[in-house]
Amino acid sequence: MREALAEAQKALETSGxxxxxxxxxxxxxxIIARGHNKKELNQDPTAHAEVVAIREASKFLSSWRLxxxxxxxxxxxxxxxAGAIQASRLSRIVFGAWDEKVGASxxxxxxxxxxxxxxxxxxxxxxxxAETSAILTDFFQAKRQSxxxxx
Length: 151
Prior knowledge:
Blueprint (H helix, E strand, L loop, with lengths): L1 H14 L5 E5 L5 E6 L2 H4 L6 H13 L8 E6 L3 H10 L3 E6 L24 E3 L4 H22 L1
Parallel strand pairs: 3-4, 4-5
Antiparallel strand pairs: 1-2, 1-3
Helix pairs in contact: 3-4
């Protein structure tokens, strides 16, 4: 998760995007792909950290099937990312902070474990939750403060 936090920091540094980082790891814990939010950088609404990492992993493996791989992400995946996770057949998700607004891995929705959508994916939440929550809280507080100053 610390590596995913480092990816989240890259989102801040490269584009000022929401600091979310993601990794795809194999069964031995080896990182095969990395991603961070690039929505602002690429002006692409689908450039969430999870999707960026899934695309990189698929390219690296020359396969869209990511069976037996784990997604490690700093924030609970949203509905779009949950769909990408299901489609890529990832086996497990490890995440840090819950996303009470749009989370789709156990908080607001639980699409990744909904058997009607495909295989049930193992979910391990709240890994380094204090750290992953803090980077997001700090980011949004700074955004609100900046908005107040410009008003």
